[in-house]
TrEMBL record:
InterPro entries: AAA+_ATPase, ABC_transporter-like_ATP-bd, ABC_transporter-like_CS, P-loop_NTPase, PstB-like. Its main location: membrane. This is Phosphate ABC transporter ATP-binding protein. The lineage of its organism: Bacteria, Bacillati, Bacillota, Clostridia, Eubacteriales. CDD domains: ABC_PstB_phosphate_transporter. Keywords: ATP-binding, Cell membrane, Membrane, Nucleotide-binding, Phosphate transport, Translocase, Transport. Gene3D superfamilies: P-loop containing nucleotide triphosphate hydrolases. GO terms for biological process: phosphate ion transmembrane transport. GO terms for cellular component: plasma membrane. One of its GO terms (molecular function) is ATP binding. It is a peripheral membrane protein. PANTHER family: ABC TRANSPORTER I FAMILY MEMBER 17 (PTHR43423:SF1).
């Protein structure tokens, strides 16, 4: 049984200047599922991901047509404030980007921006977010130390904790493990599987095995088009499109 969609995109087209990066994309993202976006470099998967919380609005010369809804609300509507959208749809980037401040301040940065001032509440948020990112036991004795002193894998989990601190509904991850060693990658993958109990996760990955291991649904992008999307097991075992089959089997590009 499929989970009800939390995000729906219909007939989404996006241009960077004259270049059409997304061509008529229509797909749903199921709630409390992990959806993996796969495809070769430059195929539109990161562009699609960044449309979901309007990060592309920050790119000069971008033009977007079509419809994207979060729980039925038009994300491009005038009353949808980008800051509120980005609180509800958080983002974790390819390269861990902790702020040059303490671990504690990294996590409370967002909640303070949204008006949380009570120290007891902030303390609880820090612990809950770090536990949610499977990092609490490793850093609980050094919360006041710089986040830049953490290892790469810890920094990436800190960025996940920072995204969780504002209590988002959806977490977007743009190749979150591509800069990590196998051990850290495994920890982040385990964490993603735990996160879907409470959050919806959309991940861009170049790693076929990773998509097969952790995602419930997989969408294959090619040259700005969505070739096919469906349950991961089906996409990997009996893809409907020859291009998907070629890509997954490594005969491609």
């Amino acid at each position: 049984m499929e989970n009800a969609p939390i995000i729906t995109a219909q007939n989404l087209n996006l241009w960077y200047g004259d270049f059409k990066a997304l061509k008529n994309i229509s797909m749903d993202v199921g709630e409390r599922e992990i959806t993996a976006l796969i495809g070769p470099s430059g195929c539109g998967k990161s562009t699609f991901l960044k449309t979901l919380n309007r990060m592309n609005d920050l790119v000069p010369g971008v033009r977007i047509e079509g419809d994207v809804r979060l729980r039925g609300q038009d994300i491009f509507a005038r009353e949808m404030q980008p800051t509120e959208l980005r609180r509800r749809v958080g983002m974790v980037f390819q390269k861990a980007n902790p702020f040059p401040m303490s671990i504690y301040d990294n996590i409370t940065y967002g909640p303070k921006l949204h008006g949380v001032r009570n120290k007891a509440e902030l303390d609880e948020l820090v612990e809950r977010s770090l536990r949610g990112a499977a990092l609490w036991n490793e850093v609980k004795d050094r919360l006041k130390k710089s986040a830049l002193g953490l290892s790469g894998g810890q920094q990436q989990r800190l960025c996940i904790a920072r995204a969780l601190a504002v209590q988002p509904e959806v977490l977007l991850m743009d190749e979150p493990t591509s800069a990590l060693d196998p051990g850290s990658t495994m920890k982040v993958e385990e964490l993603m599987s735990e996160l879907k109990e409470n959050y919806t996760v959309v991940i861009v990955t170049h790693n076929m095995q990773q998509a097969a291991r952790i995602s419930d649904k997989t969408a294959f992008f090619l040259l700005g088009e969505l070739v096919e999307a469906g349950p991961t097991a089906q996409i990997f075992s009996t893809p409907q499109d020859k291009r998907t089959e070629d890509y997954i089997s490594g005969r491609f590009g």
